[in-house]
Amino acid sequence: TNDVITPVLLTDTINKILYQTNRNLAKELELNLNFGIPVQIAKWWTMSNDITVFYLKYKTPELLGSPLDIGKTGLFVNSANSFVIGKRIQAELVADYKSPFVYGSVEFFKPQFYMDMGINYSLLQKRANLKVALSDILNTQEQHLRSVIPAVNYSIKQKNETRVVRMTFTYRFGRKEVKAVKSRSSNVEEETRRAQRSN
């Protein structure tokens, strides 16, 4: 991609601040190889794996007074697991891994890993569902990034509040309204046919 719009982290040496903005970089090269691997481990355990190997490279003649020419190979892996515990209970476990990679003017220089889990309980003849989910079980989801611009030196650790418990209740009201609409449509069609026959 030529003149790719990319988020970049830049420094203002006069005000001594670091800020994020968007810049057009001269060239971006992106190569991706993706594998989707579903696995049925047992009747009660289904696994869906997604593996992406990629290469990202950025090149521009000038960024904060220096040329930028950086590229890196990365790996993203996601594994979603579903467990049938009983007629009414299902559990989910998702694991996500990201290797170090570059993006625009920054490098994520440490691996990222987290796990989510949830339990679904169906009730009221499967019309209702109660789900309890916990995100980032191990509280490991954080980002470590640093500059790839030769003239700039910074290192950042970002850690948001990612370990969160959520409870969701859903209820399906069925298809009564849809059937009523179909019934009305059939009545209209019947009246139309009668009118045509009488003519």
How would you explain this protein's 3D organization?
With 199 residues, this protein is mostly beta strands. It is 12% helix and 63% strand. It has one helix spanning 176-198, and strands at 2-12, 17-42, 45-63, 66-84, 89-98, 101-103, 106-108, 112-123, 128-134, 143-147, 155-158, 165-171. The strands form two sheets. It has an eight-stranded antiparallel beta sheet, with no helix packed on it. A four-stranded antiparallel beta sheet has the order 6-7-10-11, with no helix packed on it. The longest helix has 23 residues, at 176-198. The radius of gyration is 27 Å and the shape is elongated.
Q: What's a quick, concise take on this entry?
A:
With 199 residues, the protein is mainly beta. The protein has one helix and twelve strands.
